[in-house]
């Protein structure tokens, strides 16, 4: 029907109440349908939608596990929450760390006590847990172990933040995620934000930095400073680094509490070996001091690898012995194809010779890798 065909009276007369209500209902339905259609199209076009849904699900499960319920999280906080570690699920305790008693005692006094005895320190800015702690030293010496044991002992929530979580995102997203790290930590406090290899994440700022990276670092620092405002804020950033000299000095200033975790001394190596071999079937003639003496310059992770290797020799021996027995049994049964069960069913104990073999093997592989690195650093042509 054309507009001019509509009677003039109908056009100029005021609308009745029912007509206004009907118009409003139609407009509302149309608006809602348009909104949901656009939202559906935008969601369908979002390349990260699937990942976001997975992260949301994981985050919700983790929040439930750690007993934080009824806290409303934004989409970005959900993303960060998927990196939460339930302190109760952490297996590492102080007893799993050998030779670092001094570091552990100091950590207990300066970091864990203020978290555990919150009521004693309430209201005082001086007795808050430090806002930043740095663990530094060569690789494989127990920094990650210490961070995990700290989270377990303090009972704090633990955000295990990977640099890539913040840096791999689209332009602008990394800043929103950085903000979410701190806002989430405050919502679920007491909380430790752990950043392994902090040197690669918050390294010396340079003019070569991408604009987004530079902004993210500046924002990280200002949010970190913001934690200082409340006396009851129980959030701490804990960084671990093999190369503290590469960490931005402005970041280092924010981590005044530092713990140096060096390569283990002779006594510490002996303690680490003893701990690693606890519960294993060892021969009586084991002399761990001799092994510790032969492993100068080895990290805790090297000692673990060495013990694993030593333990494997007896497995190889066992398998060979089994094979020999089978051959002998087959020969004895004069070609009868019948397979007899092999009686011996346990491994022999780990011996000193196994450990010494493992030391020699590791020395060779260390020499080979260091000469390979030297070749890479000083190419022949
Ligand atoms: N003091 C120690 N006591 C017991 N085990 C140790 C100790 N130090 C290292 N280890 C062993 O070495 C492994 C690696 O240690 P960890 O990951 O904590 O080292 P890291 O210093 O964080 O190394 P990276 O810098 O490479 O991350 C541990 O899982 C543990 O088995």
The distinct ligands, each listed once, are:
adenosine-5'-triphosphate
Distance between the termini: 88 Å
CATH superfamily of the largest domain: P-loop containing nucleotide triphosphate hydrolases
Looking at CATH, which topology of the largest domain would you report? Rossmann fold
Quickly give the CATH architecture of the largest domain.
3-Layer(aba) Sandwich
Average pLDDT metric: 83
Strand order of the largest sheet: 1-3-4-5-2-6
Give the ordered list of helices and strands: HHHHEHHEHEHHEHHEHEHHHH
Shape: elongated
- In this structure, how is the largest beta sheet organized? 6 strands, mixed
Strand content: 5-15%
Rg is 31 Å
Helical fraction equals 55-70%
Question: Uncertain regions: pLDDT < 50 for 5+ in a row?
Answer: none
Q: What is the β-strand count?
A: 6
Number of helices: 16
CATH class of the largest domain: Alpha Beta
How many structural domains does the protein architecture include?
2
Structural class: alpha/beta
């Amino acid at each position: 029907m054309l507009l001019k065909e509509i009677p003039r009276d109908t056009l100029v007369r005021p609308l009745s109440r029912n007509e206004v209500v009907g118009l409003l209902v139609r407009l509302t339905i149309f608006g809602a349908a348009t909104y949901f259609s656009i939202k559906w199209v935008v969601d369908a076009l979002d390349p990260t939608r699937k990942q976001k849904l997975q992260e949301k699900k994981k985050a919700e499960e983790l929040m439930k596990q750690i007993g934080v319920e009824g806290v409303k999280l934004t989409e970005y906080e959900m993303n960060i929450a998927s990196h939460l570690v339930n302190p109760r699920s952490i297996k590492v305790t102080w007893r799993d760390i050998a030779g670092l008693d001094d570091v552990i005692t100091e950590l207990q006094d300066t970091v864990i006590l203020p978290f555990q005895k919150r009521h004693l320190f309430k209201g005082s800015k001086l007795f808050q847990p430090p806002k930043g702690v740095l663990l530094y030293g060569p690789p494989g010496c127990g920094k990650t172990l210490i961070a995990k044991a700290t989270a377990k002992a303090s009972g704090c929530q633990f955000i295990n933040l990977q640099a890539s979580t913040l840096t791999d995102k689209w332009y602008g997203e990394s800043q929103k995620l950085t903000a979410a790290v701190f806002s989430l930590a405050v919502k679920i406090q007491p909380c430790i934000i752990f950043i392994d290899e902090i040197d690669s994440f918050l390294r010396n700022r340079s003019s070569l930095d991408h604009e987004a990276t530079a902004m993210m670092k500046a924002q990280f620092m200002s949010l970190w400073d913001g934690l200082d405002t409340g006396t009851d804020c129980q959030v701490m950033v804990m960084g671990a680094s093999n190369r503290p000299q590469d960490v931005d000095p402005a970041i280092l200033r924010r981590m005044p509490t530092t713990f140096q975790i060096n390569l283990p001394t002779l006594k510490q190596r002996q303690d680490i070996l003893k701990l690693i071999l606890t519960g294993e079937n060892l021969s009586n003639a084991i002399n761990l001091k001799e092994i510790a003496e032969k492993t100068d310059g080895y990290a805790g992770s090297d000692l673990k690898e060495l013990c694993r290797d030593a333990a494997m020799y007896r497995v190889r021996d066992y398998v060979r012995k089994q094979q020999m027995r089978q051959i002998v049994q087959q020969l004895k049964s004069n070609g009868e194809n019948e397979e007899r069960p092999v009686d011996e069913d346990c491994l022999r104990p780990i011996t000193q010779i196994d450990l010494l073999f493992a030391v020699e093997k590791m020395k060779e592989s260390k020499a080979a890798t260091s000469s390979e690195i030297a070749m890479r650093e000083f190419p022949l042509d």
